[in-house]
Amino acid sequence: MSTFATAAGLRSQTRMGHRIRVLAGVLITLIFLFPVFWMVLTSFKHQVDIFTTPPKFFFTPTFATYVEYFRRADIERRLINTVIVAAGSGLLSIVVGTMAGYALARIRLRGAATFGVLILLSRGVPPIALAVPMFLVARQLGLTDKHITLILAYSTFLIPYVMWLMRSFFISLPPELEESAMIDGCSRYGAFFKIILPISLPGLISTLIFSMILAWEELLFALVLTNRVASTIPVAIAGIAGDTINGANWGALTAVGTITVVPVVIFALLVQKWLIRGLADGATKG
Amino acid sequence: MMPSIVLLLITLAYPIFYTINISFTEFDLSTFGAGEWVGWSNYEEVLSDYRFWDALQVTLVYLVIALPLQIVLGFSIAFLINAEWSGRGAVRALFIIPMVVAPVVAGGIWRMILDPLWGLMNHALQTIGIGPLDWFGDPHLAMAAVIIIDTWRWTPFIVLIATAALLALPKDVFEAAKIDGAGWWATLWSVALPLLVPIIAATFVIRWLGAVKMFDIVLAATYGGPGKATNVINLFIYEEAFRSLRFAESSAMAVIVLVLTMILTGVFLYGSRKLEEQF
Asked: Phi/psi at B214 (nearest 5 deg)?
C-alpha cells in the first residue's frame, strides 16, 4: 500500500467520523430537549387528549388549562411574588457580592485567602441546616411569609456565588487599569465605580440574570418560610406534582411549568456566551 | 467587603450556630425555641435511628451512581456537540435549556413521562418490547428514575463546563500527536485526558456541591417512595423537622450532614488541587 493511499483512506475515515459525530450530537440534543417540548405540548391539550394510549402528538390546541387553573390556584400572585423575590435577592447579592469579590481580588487584606476558602466551603452547606433555624427565627420575629425573609434567605447562597464569579472576573482584568486612575487622583472607590464597573457591565448583568434564575427556581426555603401571602411558583408546582388525593393534574403541572421555564430559557439564551465563560472560570480558577 | 461579611454573618453563620445550639437541647414546642440543655442525647438518638442511616445510604447510592455518570456523559457529549459544522452554535445554545428548567419542574414533567399507565416512556419502551415498567412502584426503578431525571437536568451543566475546557485545549499538541502518527484512541488517552484531568476534578467538586443538596427533584418525582427507597437525607430531615416537628433531632442530623459534607468537600478540594499539580 502506498503512502498516498493510506493518507487518503485516513482522511475519508476521519470525514466519516466527523459526520457521525455531528449526527450523534444533534440526536442527543433532540433527546435532551424532548421533555421540555413534551411539557409545552401537553400544556395546550384538553384533558381528554392528555390521558390517551398511545400518547397524542396531534390534537386541537387549547388555552383552557391556563385560563382555568390560573384563576383557581392563585398563580398570578405567586408569579408576582416570585418576580419580587428573584429580583430583590438578585440585586442585593450583586451589589454586595461584587464589592466583596473586588476586595478579594485586589485589596491585600489579612485573612482574605481564608475568607475565600470559607466562601467556597459555604457553597457546600446543606440548605436544610439553614432552613430549620431560619424558620424558627422568622417565626419568633414575626417574619414568616414575607418577601424580605425569602430575599435574605436566598442571599445565603447567592452572595457567595456572585463573589466567586466576580472575583475571578476581576482577577482577569489588568491592575494597571485602576492604578493609572489612582495616580490621576482617583480614590480606590472612585476607580472602582468609574473604571472597573463600566468594563464589567456585561459580566455583571449576566451574573445578575443567573442569580435571579437560581432564586426563581428555589424550592426548600420557599416551602419552609412562606405559606400563603409570599408563596412562590415552585411551591405551587411541588403541590401539584405531589397531589396524591386528586391524582395527577398534568394539565396544570405542564401549564405552570411552561410559565416558569419559558422566560428563564429566553434569558439564558441571551446570556449563554457569557455563561460558558463564567462557569468555566468559576470551575477552574481558584 | 464589610457589608458582605455582615450579611453572611447574619444569614449564614448565625443560623448554623442556632442549629448547633438546638441540637444540644430539648426543643420546647410551647415556646418554639431551645429548651433545656441535654448534651449529646439528640445525637445518640439520631445515630441509633435506622431511618437516618437508611436515608444516608440512599443518598450515597444516588451520589455514587449519578456523579460519575454525569461527568462521563457530560464530557462525551461535549466532545460530540463541539464537532465543527455550521449548526454548532445553535446546538450548543439549545443544549443549555434543561439546566435552566427548575428542578421541581423537571421532577414533575418526568413524573408524567415515566407514569406507568399513561406515560410516554413506557409506551416507547413497549414498542421495542420492553415493559411495562413500574417506574415509581419498584424501589430500584424509582432510584433509577431519580438518577435519570437528575442526569437529564445536570448533564448540560457539565457539558457547558466541558465545552469551555475542550475549546481551551492547545491545538498544537494535537497536531504534533497527529504528525507523530498517534491514532484516535492514543490521542484521546495519552494527550487529551491528562490535559483534562484537572478540569474534570474541578467539575466533580462543583457538581458534588450541588448534588449533596438533592431535594427538589425527589420531592416532585417520588417524594422518597416507594416506601423509603428514594428518601434522600435532605428530604428525610425536612420531613422530621416540618412534618413531625422534631426540631432538636433534625438539627442534630443537619449538623452531622453539615460536618460530613464539609469533610468530604475538603478532601475533594485537596484531591483536585493535588491532581492539578501532578498534571
From this structure: -40, 115
**Which H, E and C letters describe A230-270, residue by residue?**
CCCHHHHHHHHHCCCCCCCCHHHHHHHHHHHHHHHHHHHHH
B155: nearest CA partner in chain A: A32
A77: which residues sit within 8 A by CB, 6+ positions away? none
B25 DSSP β-pair partners? B37
What's this model's pTM, rounded to 2 decimal places?
0.88
List, in sequence order, the alpha helices (H) in B132-170: 139-167
Nine cell digits for residue A245: 388525593
Structural element, H or E, at residue B267: helix B247-278
Which CATH architecture describes the domain B49-278?
Orthogonal Bundle (1.10)
Residues of chain B with CATH 1.10.3720.10: 49-278
The candidate with the shortest Cα–Cα distance to B161, out of A277, A130, A270, is A277
ipTM: 0.86
In angstroms, the CA A25 to CA A22 distance is 5
CA distance B239 to chain A (A): 11
Are residues B8 and A152, on separate chains, in Cβ contact within 8 Å? no
Strand ranges (DSSP E) for chain A?
none
Picking from A158, A14, A27, the residue whose alpha carbon sits closest to that of residue A85 is A158
Spatial CB neighbours of A205, under 8 Å, sequence gap ≥ 6? A271
Per-residue tens of pLDDT for chain A, all 286 residues: 444 445 555 555 567 778 888 899 899 999 999 999 999 999 988 877 877 777 778 787 888 788 877 777 678 888 899 999 999 999 999 998 888 888 888 777 677 777 777 777 777 788 888 898 888 888 888 888 888 989 989 988 898 888 888 887 888 778 877 777 778 777 777 888 888 888 888 788 888 888 898 899 999 999 999 888 888 889 988 888 877 666 678 888 899 899 889 988 888 888 776 766 655 555 444 3
- φ, ψ of residue A219 in degrees (nearest 5): -115, -50
Please state the φ and ψ torsions of residue B28, each to the nearest 5 degrees.
-100, 105
My answer on whether omega of the bond before A54 falls inside 30° of 0, hence cis, is yes
Given a contact cutoff of 8 angstroms between Cβ atoms, the answer to whether B182 and B191 are in contact is: yes
Cell numbers linked to A108: 491585600
Q: For residue A148, which of A74, A90, A88 has the smallest C-alpha distance?
A: A88
Interface of A with B in 215-274 (CB under 8 A): 216-217, 219-220, 223-224, 234, 237-238, 240-242, 248, 250, 253-254, 257, 260-261, 264-265, 267-269, 272
